[in-house]
Amino acid sequence: MSKFREESEFRAENTSPYSLLPFNFLKLNSGKYRVVTLAGDYTELDLVDLRALVDGELVAGSDLYLDLRSKGFIFDSLSKNNIALTSIKLRTKMAHVFHLTSLHMFVISLRCDHSCPYCQVSRQNIDSNDVFDMTESTADKALDVVFSSPSKYIKIEFQGGEPLLNFDLLKYIVRRAHKLNENYKRNLDFVIATNLAMISEEILEFCKQFGINISTSLDGPKALHNGNRPRPGKNSYEKTIKGINLCRDYLGREKVSALMTTSPNSLLQFREIVDEYLAQGFEGVFLRPLSPYGYAVKTKWAESYSIEEWLEEYKKVLYYILDINMSGHPFIEFYTALVAKRILKPSYTGYVDLQHPTGAGFSAFLYNYDGKVYSSDEGRMLAEMGDKSLCIGDLKQDSFLDLICSDQLKAQVGESFGYTSSSCEQCAYLPYCGSEPTRHHVLQGDFMGNKIYSPFCKRQMGVIGHVFELLENDSYRRILEAWAYDST
Amino acid sequence: MIPLNGKILLSTLPKIGKDKVIRLSNNQNMPLPLRKSEVFILSGREVPSGFWGYITFNDQSQEYDAPDVPLLCLNSEMSHLTDGDIIRVSNDSKRVRVLYRKQSQHNFILLTEQCNHYCLMCSQPPKTQDDSYLVENTKDVLRLASRGSDEIGFTGGEPTLLGDDFINLVRLAESYLPETALHVLSNGRAFGDLEYARKLAEVRHHDLMIGIPIYSDAPEIHNYVVQSDNALDETVRGLINLSRFSIPIEIRIVLHNVTKDRLLNLAQFVSRYLPFVSQVAFMGLEMVGFARANKDLLWVEPDSYSSQLTEAVEFLSVRNISTSVYNLQLCLMPKALWPFMKKAISDWKNVYEPECNECDVRDKCGGFFSSHIYKKPINIRPVKL
Ligand code: SF4
Ligand code: SF4
After folding, report:
1. How far apart are CA A247 and CA A192, in angstroms?
2. Which of B338, B358, B376 is the last residue of a domain?
3. Atom 6 (ligand 1) nearest CA
């Protein structure tokens, strides 16, 4: 007599069997399997359940069935939307492909007052003549390319050498970009990557006027920093700290950030480095491994520690950082935060150096002082060492379209795309990872590389796996959620 | 509880052959040309001339010597009516219905009683007969309503069954109440048609929110609750289309025995696929309409799902999705949930139990629906701070 239909009438077993959506899996030490969809949703299954899932033998309506369907591992006649939902999520996570180039690095001078052995660039002496400086006409052409990119967000980053050695051109570029932007109306941002040795009130006044951000290098405590970053007077640390504080006085805390580079000396001092960043009032630290380019290759620093050693130290110091957070002081390790975002968030997470397809070129162009254009910072270094394969064009003759469609860029992007390569395609961590065409090109001679021999892959596996482990602990999970959702 | 339906004890209003929607006034000094479209609320002996009609309550009319004006005498429970309120007087002069209360921040306007869902706990059970007069009523209300109220609501039935008429009503709301937010309760399925979603977006309402219920991440459960095949799939498609046009969305989840088991899964589903929603509202079950008929199927003691609810709410709020809980009593929920618990959505729903008089948090607690007499939670205990 009831006007209402019974629950059983709506069940899935009344309908057709389920179909699989794409996923990968990885065996864990526990014997269980971590199973991850193409869109990055994950679960853990034992072998019996994994087999059942794959063989189409899940019991319709069981908790496991409902869970796997909700997460997008399968779909049935009740949930045909799952295909659309998966593709929307995937599309969202690769949003950089639609935005195209947003980061534009201008190498306005190759000269530098420092002589850091790990420098990725073959810098020139401070008083070398100005053939190592960018000219106004080159800058004009670069800006034409910048505003030809369809990206709503444009970030212009000044690099060197030491970009402040060519401050006149910097001012010229900022003013001209502003002028052009009255027409183009993009979200325009500037950042100067500087060692701060030459920072002055005059420069900061200018930065304040145009809302320019400052990014500097701080390798750790004084001895470590000065050891890593020699300059005449051996006072890089003092100058950096003084500079950081002066920048904050003028621009405010959030406008100044610092990066560190791991040298063989720093590996065993991670904790001291964290303490230094804490003491200097930073909201976090980015524990970067050393890249195998430039002077770093020449000095053999790159091979002086293994990724296993790095991982071990990384995990140790990460626990230290997590403890600091648990005691109530928020402090972020940015690489971990990025991985946590990738795992937890459904949205796009912008980080040029870790994207599928690669952010190099797609998301970032580098305009060298001489007008050559590269897909990444490292590209110019390789070119100076004689390898021109990452040079995607020359401002003398190439437009934005020429650059973005250049054969060199197409090769980098296409050949390093994890979703279609035998190397990464079946990896459970693929949705959280990214391409590293430059590094694999250097170490293995092709943009994809064989991931079995790839230190990059080892690090990714290590870090991502570790973050998953941390997520199982409620207190750590809360911190990682805060890192993922509260920070930008 | 403020009654919105009243009996007409006596009417000498002019007959117009159909329902009349009219605004009330107590302004004795209203310019004459304006009076003929208003009804004056009599109080005291003054009977200013020229109004279309006059209202009194109960038999107060006897106090007036010469009620030879068009008079509407209502039961005294309607004496809350005041200046700026809008009522509908039925054609047969038997009933009035309050369509808009100027003082209220919770004016919900019923657009239709027809629905393509048939929810197990529907508080406003759908009807099938033609009720297109409601669209005309709503147009009148929107044109008469005084500007300045913070929010009005459109409810049903399912408003989008009205098709273009619904879009039109949203347009009128924007035109006549340009400072007032509009909250629409809809199941969202109609927006699975991208063009329909586009039409809504093209109205460019300045502050629109569509409240859409999702009762489970599992389609069989959601579809069962709303008694309709393909419901979840179509609703989700609608949500995605609304998000393409950046139309703000609220997800509404009614808590009962059929929905309580997958709250965390549902929260995960929202964060996974619908991260664009503006807010999520969890709501205790109101024992009216079908919910009363399906009491045995639906009733569950709220404290029995309190930990799952807390987990789901925390999951969403950590992810920056604004989340609230309505219609549940503080004493049944852990303190961790209290910051998310809001007082009832409507101003005429809060009632309290004898226990509540002893309670330290009574002023923060939403208390009960007046309908709770049909089912009172057993573990109501005064909270001592
Ligand atoms: S690089 Fe390694 S961790 Fe990253 S997707 Fe490829 S195989 Fe997986
Ligand atoms: S005793 Fe009454 S007022 Fe106090 S929390 Fe419970 S329901 Fe609310």
Report:
1. 12
2. B338
3. A424
Largest CA distance in chain A: 95
CA distances from B197 to A172, B156, B240 (A): 47, 18, 10
ipTM tops the 0.95 cut? no
Average pLDDT per block of 10 residues along chain A, 488 residues long: 81 78 96 96 97 93 94 94 92 86 93 72 66 92 96 94 93 97 96 93 96 95 90 89 95 94 84 96 88 58 74 95 96 96 90 85 91 90 85 95 94 90 91 90 87 90 97 96 85
DSSP string computed for A190-201: EEEE--STT--H
Taking the centre of ligand 2 as the mean of its atom positions, its distance from the CA of residue B326, in whole angstroms, is 14
3-state helix, strand and coil shares in percent for chain A, rounded to the nearest 5:
50, 15, 40
Is the shortest distance between the CB of B330 and ligand 2 below 6 Å?
Answer: yes
**Of the candidates B218, B227, B269, which has its C-beta nearest A5's C-beta?**
B227
Q: What is the span of the domain harbouring residue A127?
A: 95-404
Looking at the fold, whether A81 and A105 belong to one and the same domain comes out as no
- A257, A193 Cβ separation under 8 angstroms: no
Q: What are phi and psi of A409, to 5 degrees?
A: -70, -45
* Residue having the nearest C-alpha atom to atom 7 of ligand 1: A424
* Residue B376 within a domain: no
Q: What is the CATH number of the domain that holds A258?
A: 3.20.20.70
Containing domain of residue B166, as a range? Answer: 108-338
Tens-place pLDDT, residues A244-266: 999 999 999 999 999 998 877 88
d(CA B383, CA B368) in angstroms, rounded, equals 16
For the whole model, what pTM was predicted? 0.90
Q: From the alpha carbon of B365, which atom of ligand 2 is closest?
A: 8
